[in-house]
């Protein structure tokens, strides 16, 4: 005879109240996904280095036209508040001081995994898709690939491209390479980000330079 186990799902508001009440310690790495409080894997040195590296590169690349958020909450809905490794957010003057960003504020989410690939792919990725985050990258450090999930429709990413890390023997850098394609995934991302004042890049020369820089994003 099967046993029915009742689960108690928490809302984002309840989750926040639990944090304020001291239910979680400062060292607890947890996040709320679909009403369940889930424990995240510890951050290893390589994971941390990849987050720091991408943070620096995105800030240099975007030049203030969007906000690079590192391991901070995004409210997907009433029952989910993940903390992605990197989130590229729409620029806001208050830097989201009044409230955490929502799914509609996210232009790109990046999850970096060395031991948590299944968790990121099977649990967090569908949650991002259901909440209409337009694009998600999952960096798998164990096999040195980036899976780009895009072309969102009806809560599902219809296009998945795998980028392999390739080392250039002449210089210690890596790049994302899409087989059969000459453009980095950063090119369409950059086109979605509004230009801000004097930082606008409009000339063909500057546009080509921007695309060239995108091709040398390392992780």
How is this structure best described in words?
The protein has 219 residues and is of the alpha+beta class. It has a single domain, classed as tt1808, chain A, CATH 3.90.1570.10. The protein contains 5 helices and 9 strands, in the order H-E-E-H-E-E-E-H-E-E-E-E-H-H. The strands form 2 sheets. Strands 3-4-5-6-7-8-9 form a 7-stranded mixed sheet, sandwiched between helices. The chain has a two-stranded antiparallel sheet with strand order 1-2. A hairpin with a 2-residue loop joins strand 1 and strand 2. The chain is globular. About 18% of the residues have low confidence.
Summarize the structure in short:
The protein is an alpha+beta fold and 219 residues long.
Distance between the termini: 50 Å
Please describe the biggest sheet, giving its number of strands, its sense, and whether it closes into a barrel. 7 strands, mixed
Order of helix and strand elements from N to C terminus = HEEHEEEHEEEEHH
Low-confidence stretches: 167-185, 196-216
Count of runs of 4 or more consecutive helical residues: 5
CATH fold type = tt1808, chain A
List keywords for this structure.
single chain; 219 residues; alpha+beta; tt1808, chain A; seven-stranded mixed beta sheet; two-stranded antiparallel sheet; 5 helices; 9 strands; globular
């Amino acid at each position: 005879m099967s046993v029915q186990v009742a689960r108690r799902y928490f809302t984002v508001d309840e989750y926040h109240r639990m944090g304020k009440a001291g239910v979680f310690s400062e060292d607890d790495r947890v996040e709320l996904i679909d009403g369940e409080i889930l424990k995240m894997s510890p951050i290893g040195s390589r994971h941390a280095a990849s987050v720091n590296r991408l943070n620096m590169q995105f800030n240099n690349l975007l030049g203030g036209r969007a906000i690079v958020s590192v391991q901070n909450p995004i409210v997907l809905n009433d029952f989910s508040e993940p903390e992605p490794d990197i989130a590229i957010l729409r620029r806001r003057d208050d830097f989201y001081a009044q409230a955490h960003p929502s799914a509609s504020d996210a232009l790109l989410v990046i999850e970096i995994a060395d031991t948590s690939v299944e968790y990121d792919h099977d649990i967090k990725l569908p949650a991002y898709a259901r909440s209409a985050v337009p694009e998600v990258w999952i960096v798998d450090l164990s096999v040195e690939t980036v899976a780009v999930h895009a072309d969102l429709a009806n809560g599902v990413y219809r296009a998945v491209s795998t980028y392999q890390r390739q080392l250039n023997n002449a210089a210690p850098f890596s790049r994302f390479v899409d087989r059969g394609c000459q453009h980095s995934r950063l090119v369409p991302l950059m086109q979605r980000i509004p230009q801000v004042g004097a930082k606008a890049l409009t000339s063909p020369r500057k546009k080509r330079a921007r695309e060239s820089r995108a091709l040398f994003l390392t992780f």
